[in-house]
Amino acid sequence: MNLLLHICCACCLCAPLNELRKEGFKVTGLFYNPNIHPLLEFRRRLKALRVFQESDPISVIYCEDYGLREYLKKVNYEGDDRCADCYTMRLEFTAAYARENGFDAFTSTMLFSVYQNHEQLKMFSENLSKEYGIDFIYRDYRHLSECSHDIARKKMIYRQGYCGCIFSEYERYKDTTRELYKGNNPHSKDKESTRKVLNTKDVLQRCDCFG
């Protein structure tokens, strides 16, 4: 059976791909993730998937356009259903692509992540399967999450710190703090290695442009 596998990231692909192959599926990947922001993060995840391909060849269809505008148009990012809108956007694209390009079925690595709403993803996929007339392959591989991460570490594949959108990045890092402009040696008496943050008044006083 020719299976179109939506890939959210290389890390979530590692272990599930092996299991799907053991079941006899001929797997083709689809990287379609307009939710991933900012641009540099999007590029990191594209590169991570290509690094994965070097050690474990898999045919992948890449949608490489940075999807900021598409994401903002389709997702109600001010409401409580932001994730549901994001799931639907990516899954619907996958189901439609599978039907239009002769695949027998579709599924997504999002189902294999312990960080996503599993039941919601399953329900949306089943509804899209009926709407588009294409089989949906349901598997619960969440128990392979740590195994997948271990494989990613061994392959030295980039592992992201948040789901994908700019809002999930904020939620992931909003409570973190760090010292800015800190010297390499906090105990050093070398004044050149000690930096301080200037306030606005200091900056203006030191800038010739403002007299």
TrEMBL record:
The UniProt gene name for this protein comes to queH
* Cystines in this chain: 163-165
Question: Per the similarity annotation, which family is this?
Answer: Belongs to the QueH family.
* Pathway the protein takes part in: tRNA modification; tRNA-queuosine biosynthesis
The entry marks the following residues as binding [4Fe-4S] cluster, namely 8-9, 83, 86
Which UniProt keywords are listed?
4Fe-4S, Disulfide bond, Iron, Iron-sulfur, Metal-binding, Oxidoreductase, Queuosine biosynthesis, Redox-active center, tRNA processing
Please name the PANTHER family in this protein's record: EPOXYQUEUOSINE REDUCTASE QUEH (PTHR36701:SF1)
- EC numbers, comma separated: 1.17.99.6
Respond yes or no to whether keyword Oxidoreductase is given for this record: yes
- Give the protein's function: Catalyzes the conversion of epoxyqueuosine (oQ) to queuosine (Q), which is a hypermodified base found in the wobble positions of tRNA(Asp), tRNA(Asn), tRNA(His) and tRNA(Tyr).
Please write the reaction equations for the catalytic activity of this protein.
epoxyqueuosine(34) in tRNA + AH2 = queuosine(34) in tRNA + A + H2O
Q: From the Swiss-Prot or TrEMBL record, give the protein name.
A: Epoxyqueuosine reductase QueH
Record-linked Pfam families: QueH
